[in-house]
Amino acid sequence: MLFDETNNGRGCSSLPAKNGGDARDTCHASMDNDCVVVGASFAGLACATALARAGLRVTVLEKKADAGEKLHTTGIIVKDAIDQIAMLDRLPAEVVRRVGGVRLYAPNLRHVDLAAPGYYFLTTDTPEVMRWLASRTEEAGARISYHALFRGAQRLQSGFDLGEFGTTRFLVGADGPSSAVAKAFGLGKSRRFLFGLEHEYSGVELPDSDKLHCFIDRHLAPGYIGWLVPSPGGAQVGLARRVHHRQRPAVKAMVEFLDKVAPIVDLRGLQPASVRAGMIPCGGVVRPVAARRVLLTGDAAGMVSPVTAGGIHNALKHGLAAGHAIADYLSGRREDPSTWFVGSYPRFRVKRLLRFLFDRFQSDVLFNLLLHTGAVRTAASIVYFHHKGVFDPQTQPTERTAIRLELNGRAGDAGPGSAGGGA
Ligand SMILES: Cc1cc2nc3c(=O)[nH]c(=O)nc-3n(C[C@H](O)[C@H](O)[C@H](O)COP(=O)(O)OP(=O)(O)OC[C@H]3O[C@@H](n4cnc5c(N)ncnc54)[C@H](O)[C@@H]3O)c2cc1C
């Protein structure tokens, strides 16, 4: 879609901002929306909720019929997200399951158990979590349009013309790793990916079901891991692997993985209730990640931890922060967030280095030999439990209060990367 910086009749004229920043609108009311957010998943719903709570007119465009359909995520939420993101308060107990630790398996299936005091993960009935988040967003005052496929936008003087979806002063791309918003505005796109494939089985109870079972295996899951996860309604089994043209197909690797984990739980004769699959960006934040009045967030921005491949925490946290930043701009309090806000996006410098090393030097022989050593246990604990692997539970409430991202808070309250950078 072509840029058009001219006023074509639907746009508004602008005045220079007093602070030398972006131009300020003179006729907001003629725009249908203050902000259109593309994508009704974690990042988009968080962003839209913050905008609606600020009293702005926000519409979420979602191509699917329902926020809970055709998901591509295991849906594990880390404790840091629960602690910091008020939007997750009152998550219904029946859609989550608390899991206390990790059992990490070497390629030869010897294992170590890892835990950190007070730390836990929530596995989820993810479709229901998405529907619940969508209803919170609507309660906040945002409108969600389903069956609404964003294809492009025409730039106006003070916003955008989205054709059948009307006009808007600001546009957010929360539309995942193949972002159509990024494409429409020539923004950056992720180039390094893992591919994840997962089966969900209803009514299956895993042995040692208070643990996430994680499997290192360079042949089946190069660049990442395989997993067995107890979920609210059964179990999820999956693997994610570096995208590489010469590797065995993921479906074949999944068959071999089911054979491998059969001594722990034999799922081979069972029909999965659902299959989830998708690309996981693992190369860090894309560049450029914003343009005038356009911002990418969540997977569209590449905000997934290059090490753990977790993106839900970052999507929620930075989605909310983006909503606050855009609200400040549209209310005339700050400049366009495309200039200042994107500086708060995580850089993942250390995690990108770890990914580089893991991609090149992952060795089954070494993991078989070293899994039980203190060095590997410590490194794995840091990966799974972040810096909080060694926290003192007594001090945590104060810390939590300080960094909690309240819906009426400000982006800067949390500080860039203050929350462990996601799963
Ligand atoms: C197999 C797998 C397992 C994973 N497991 C975990 C996990 O356990 N924990 C974790 O933290 N992370 C996990 N991740 C990563 C996590 O799922 C993502 O980081 C997270 O979903 C990102 O959320 P998002 O809102 O940015 O984008 P997405 O969840 O990708 O949502 C994008 C939304 O935009 C919509 N959309 C796309 N294009 C358009 C368009 N043109 N018009 C309108 N709507 C559009 C889509 O339908 C979708 O609803 C996993 C990923 C995969 C692939």
Please tell me about this protein's structure.
There is one protein chain. Strand 3 (33-38), helix 1 (42-53) and strand 4 form a beta-alpha-beta unit. This protein is 28% helix and 22% strand. The chain is built from twelve helices and 20 strands. It folds into two domains: 2-63 and 148-189 and 286-347, FAD/NAD(P)-binding domain (3-Layer(bba) Sandwich); 77-125 and 193-281 and 351-408, D-Amino Acid Oxidase, Chain A, domain 2, CATH 3.30.9. The site of flavin-adenine dinucleotide has 39 residues, from helix 1, strand 14, strand 18 and helix 6.
Which helices and strands, and how do they pair?
Layout: E1 14-15, E2 24-25, E3 33-38, H1 42-53, E4 58-61, E5 77-78, H2 79-84, E6 96-99, E7 101-105, E8 111-114, E9 121-124, H3 126-140, E10 143-145, E11 154-156, E12 159-161, E13 167-173, H4 180-184, E14 193-202, E15 211-215, E16 226-231, E17 234-242, H5 250-261, E18 274-281, E19 290-291, E20 294-296, H6 312-330, H7 337-340, H8 349-361, H9 364-370, H10 374-385, H11 396-403, H12 411-414
Parallel strand pairs: 3-4, 3-13, 4-10, 7-15, 13-20
Antiparallel strand pairs: 1-2, 5-9, 6-9, 7-8, 11-12, 12-13, 14-17, 14-18, 15-16, 16-17, 19-20
The structure holds flavin-adenine dinucleotide.
Residues 38-44, 61-64, 72-76, 148-150, 174-176, 180, 196, 198, 238, 276, 278, 280, 298-300, 304, 310-313, 315, 423 line the site of flavin-adenine dinucleotide.
